[in-house]
Design a protein that fits this description.
Elements (H helix, E strand, L loop, with lengths): L2 H11 L17 H28 L3 H8 L2 E6 L2 E6 H27 L5 H25 L17 H9 L7 H25 L6 H19 L5 H18 L5 H9 L8 H18 L10 H17 L2 H25 L9 H5 L2 H27 L11 H10 L4 H11 L4 H34 L3
Antiparallel strand pairs: 1-2
Helix pairs in contact: 2-3, 2-6, 2-13, 4-7, 4-10, 4-13, 5-7, 5-15, 6-7, 8-9, 9-10, 11-12, 15-16, 15-18, 16-18, 17-18
Length: 462
């Protein structure tokens, strides 16, 4: 760098203090780029955590690992008590935050995203439906009756973090529209999984708590309609909603979805009003500024900055702000903790043949790998032939087929459904989890290789 370049750089940096690592986080990302970046990182972290859980469950610390997972934890206030194992606290409690973020993403997609326009939404919606129905039918064909039949919902789900993480590794070789297609497909897929959990994985219903839950959800909607944009009231009511659903028999994590749907998606200020507001505040800021003095000693300046912060929150929809705030803790903490507790399965190396031909193992693995591929690719082909939908921009049908393989990565939601279906049958739960892990690994590798080869074919000279 010459002298002039250094002078320009110093001038640019004048008046700015950077902590040692701060510049690495200074890049401006669009909401979609931020979403993809976090899902990619979450997918890699999830993979590491799952491998670590497998090592714990099959190594010398296996007994201690199982003891910790099943440790009872209780909360007591007077005569009131709520006791569950650590596994249940994570699956029923912590995962409500995961479903909350899923609900926020789904609502945003419906309002302003890929699902907002029917022409753009038709293909991923159709693909998601095909990718749910065909895997369920394959599983049910192999396990038509008995306790094992309860697992038909396991191969229906796609793990958005893993799938996008795998596709993002090929980001320079695939069109952005293909990533957007997978995101929309996975979000519709998540909605389908939520409906399946609510309708088919609820054994008994307690009417009184369910009515209380309905009243609390109505209260959340009333908050929305009355213009309440502070998040604290929503959070407090959502906690009580979670507890009411827990007592009702409906899976408590659905409180996350209901809470997300009630969050306002309309900001208080329009952009024009915010722009005017900021200009007025900056005039006051400049008038109050005293060169050479710290903002900590200037009350007027601090008041202007605080007002500016309030204005920033007012021009940003609460839904958008909460999605930004909660996406990182859910992606980097909640999902890895879920994987650490649930992916630790004790593999039986003494009889691998029996595991591979077990009906539940076959139903889950074939449903995820073969069922997703047939369901998504088949429905997309049919919709394109009938001219019901169009391919995403700059995307080839062969790439859609590759994405349909990646959609076979079921992990988080599939394990969640397996826990619900086989909660009282450890052997079948083990087979289901083994099938999920095997299918997710196979689907991820197959989808990556498929899309890589397609990209080579598309760039090779004619």
């Amino acid at each position: 760098m010459n002298h002039d370049d250094k002078t320009a750089a110093n001038a640019t940096e004048k008046g700015v203090f950077h902590s040692p690592w701060e510049k690495s986080f200074d890049k401006m990302l669009t909401p979609f780029e931020e979403f993809i970046h976090r899902q990619t990182t979450s997918g890699l972290l999830l993979m590491i955590t799952a491998v670590f859980a497998l090592i714990l469950a099959n190594g010398p610390l296996a007994a201690g690992y199982q003891h910790v997972v099943h440790t009872l934890i209780s909360f007591n206030i007077g005569r009131w008590s709520l006791e569950m194992s650590l596994n249940h606290w994570i699956n029923d409690g912590l995962m409500a935050l995961f479903f909350f973020v899923v609900g926020l993403e789904l609502k945003r997609e419906i309002l302003v995203g890929e699902l907002a326009k029917l022409r753009n939404a038709a293909l991923p919606i159709g693909a998601a439906i095909g990718g749910m129905v065909v895997p369920a039918l394959i599983y049910f064909a192999i396990n038509p009756d008995g306790v094992a039949a309860r697992g038909w919902g396991i191969p229906m789900a796609t793990d958005i973090a893993f799938a996008i993480g795998a596709l993002a590794l090929l980001a320079s070789r695939v069109p952005t529209a293909l990533i957007t297609f997978l995101v929309a497909l996975a979000i519709v897929d998540d909605l389908g999984a939520v409906l399946v959990i609510a309708l088919f994985y609820t054994d008994t219903i307690a009417l009184a708590p369910l009515l209380v839950a309905a009243a609390l959800f109505a209260l959340l909607l009333a908050f929305n309609m009355s213009g309440i944009r502070k998040t604290i009231p929503y959070f407090i009511v959502a906690v009580f909603l979670w507890y009411a659903l827990l007592q009702s028999g409906v899976h408590a994590t659905l409180a996350g979805i209901l809470g997300a749907f009630s969050v306002p998606a309309v900001p208080k200020y329009k952009p024009e009003r915010f722009s005017q507001h900021v200009r007025e505040l900056m005039q006051r800021f400049d008038a109050s500024h005293r060169p050479g003095t710290s903002i900590m000693t200037n009350d007027k300046l601090r008041a202007v900055v605080q007002t500016l912060e309030n204005g920033v929150h007012s021009v940003e929809a609460p839904l958008q702000r909460l999605e930004h705030v909660w996406h990182m803790p859910v992606a980097y903490l909640v999902i890895p903790v879920f994987a650490l507790v649930n992916a630790g399965i004790a593999l039986d190396f003494s009889a691998p043949g029996g595991t591979l031909i077990h009906p539940v193992m076959l139903g889950v693995s074939l449903g995820l790998v073969l069922g997703k591929f047939i369901g998504i690719t088949g429905v997309c082909w049919l919709m394109l032939k009938l001219k019901i939908a169009v391919l995403p921009k700059n995307t080839r049908f062969s790439q859609i087929a590759g994405v349909s393989l990646l959609a076979g990565i079921g992990f988080t939601m599939s394990i969640f459904v397996a826990q619900l279906g086989f909660e009282d049958n450890a052997d079948l739960l083990l087979m289901a989890k083994t099938g999920i892990l095997a299918a997710s690994l196979l689907a991820g590798v197959a989808g990556f290789v498929w899309l890589y080869l397609v990209s080579l074919a598309n760039t090779s000279p004619a």
